[in-house]
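Cont'd.
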Amino acid sequence: MSGAAVPVGIEVAEHFQDANQQRHAAVFGMWLWLATELLLFSGLFLVAIVVRVMYPDAVTAVALHLKFWIGATNTAVLICSSLTMSAAIELSRLGWRRGMLACMLATASLGTLFLALKGYEYWRDYVEHMTPFFGFRPYVLSGDRATQLLVDDYFIITGLHGLHLTTGVSVLLGLAWIARRPSFLRHHQHRVEVFGLYWHFIDLIWISVFPILYLLNR
Amino acid sequence: MTHEDWRTIRHRLRSPVLCFVALLLLLGVNVLLGVYAPFRWRNIWMIEAGIAVAMVLIVLVFSMELVREPPVIRLFAGVGFYWLVILFSLTLLDYLTR
Amino acid sequence: MSPSDTALRDPLTPRPTLGRPDDYLHSEHTLRSWLLTHDHKRIGILYLLSITFFFIIGAIAAGLVRLSLIVPNGMIFSNDTYNRLFSIHGIVMVWFFLIPSIPNTFGNFLLPIMIGAKEVAFPRLNLLSWYIFMVASLFTLADVVIGGVDTGWTFYAPFSTTFSSAWVVPALIGVIVVGFSSILTGLNFVVTVHTMRAPGMTWFRMPIFVWTMYATSLIFLLATPVLTITMLLLLMERGFHIGVFNPAIGGDPVLFQHMFWFYSHPAVYIMVLPGMGVISEVVPAFAQRRLFGYRFVAYASIALATVTFLVWGHHMFVNGMSEYASIAFSIMSFVVAVPSAVKVYNWTATMYKGAIKLRTPMIFAMGYVGLFVVGGITGLYLATLGVDEHVHDTYFVVAHFHYIMVGGTSIAFLAGLHYWWPKFTGRMYPEPWGVVAALFIFIGFNATFFPQFILGYLGMPRRYHEYPPEFQILNVLSSVGATILGAGYLFPMIYLVWSLRFGDPAPANPWDAKGLEWTIASPPPEHNFARVPQVDFEPYDYSEREQRT
């Protein structure tokens, strides 16, 4: 075993019987939360699908104006961040604190890269007149008003996903700040795992957003 | 880092790296379909959607380690998606039969 | 001696003495100890106080609505004021009273005790849930009272997004935020039931109240997020013109209704299921009989929580939905009546040949069963496509859902409040006054809402404050009934507060009832159980009396 490894465990809270029960409760709670997040996004996906059923031509016109390559790159970025997050979890189980911290910071950086690309994409949308809700700017697809439905849905979906990712990056940085203390893994190792679930889930949502908005409608 | 450490690392990271490779490959296929096959065949979206579902399943089962969790957690992960299916199917029942 | 009586005499269980410093009410006295508490019992009491406040607000608005409807020409309030009044009534009663009523008060207080746990799984989240509730509800209340909202509680697009001139956006924000309080409570309960049960407390040893709380929590988790996103879409459309429902650009308001009712129909079962749980506790205790068909009632709870997600379209039969979808939703709506009926039969069968004690909770429970049957059967009329065509958006619908919400949930709430009042406070309520209140409420309720069935069938639409003069007699009758009902609600508010100081001290088990909550002192000690209980008895273990007869 490496000399860098620190003891790993969970400090049992008063109302739990043992560490296993506590870990199970935490993981279970996070899965339930993620189920609610899934249904939250499902409403927006439903709108996209219904609009596609109602106006197939309009959604194709919109999809050809979306920045397909930025969307694809961003998917790849998040897949990379999932790998580093998984690595952080595995290292936390081994008690390799420094490696875990490095992986957490790499994950946060990839998340930030995603947000930066997303911001650039929004800028391009603005420049290319894909913002029908701004009354002061002409709209490139104004010939078919129904296109606005999918564009609006696109901004709400990606905005809400961006909000989740921003939250994820902030929490991850906070967690890394706390986890820099050597005693962290002895008391709260399961927090890394529970947060990891959330991170993978944001990735999962984007993996669904990319085809639903950018790909299927082309 | 000793030789032993590297072995541990390789062993532990096998599954995440395999997921990573599989996800990137599937994404690549989808991107190629999106770039080179539009307008050719109307129902290409079925293949693309299938690939996306496969990617989601990989993340769920391996990245989120559903495969290691007790049955009750697998059940609730399934319940979330099942409810999504209820929402979609009954709403589309209206839109597809109007 | 049945095994649960052995648990009662456990020498390690604290003896029921009042005012001991270790009960949850008296362990600490400061305001801070209440506002920062992690104790599920104290959080339950905080919720009880909050929802009582909101009930009073909602009831006042209802009283003003009935006042306005005494005269047919709408002289008493202007159109705008009337719209705002019924919106206050709907928004406050649905989101700030009915939905949190039983789960967040009795559920928080009793669920951990009933499964033999010290706490819920996430005590801090539980407190956070209360704070979210308070912030969102007070914010919304200020909005609907000061600014006014005229959309009703349903916020139908495009009226809410485009045409309403009222303060819709803050109300939407409030409803979005309060949803998180529901979600956190539901999440807490599901994890608690799965992970915190005492040794020996198997699934089929849990009281039905716990089963219904579990089913309700599932609906909280699976329905609320869809409401959140729907309200968010309305908010974006109204606030920023980033919308998807606007018919002017081809959007479909019916899509809004699909998403809204995907939450709001299951929300009916968020309100009804906990009431069913309360009745399933009260009836066996006052009939001194085992609950008939325990497993069927348990399964029926889960079945209701599931099937209720398949019927939302019956709110939309006349709104432009396809006929095929209407037929499917109509059939599913008939199916959902089956588990409800199973429960009614089982309560009745439990009372059959029981040694019935007609105490206040039992009188409320019997009233509940009758009113719930009326509400349920009229629900079947409404699920029928042809009949719904005739009575849609009339007072028939109003009467139907008030029979479920008020005749069902509110009365079950009062039944549970009287049943567990000794456990909550350590004091008995005055029995004669309880009986009087129960009778007032039963009579007043029927006088208020039965005329509305007739009004609706004759064609009086809901949400108008002017109506043809020939409807006046029935409307006056309804308003008189509302006065009796209001008086009935006033009694418990007075005598329950009175009993806090002057009521008789309550023993640990005043009703001779079974269940873990009756094996500990009244009020319960801070950590519920002196040691983790070993459960080796079935629920509703009234076999002792049954063998005697």
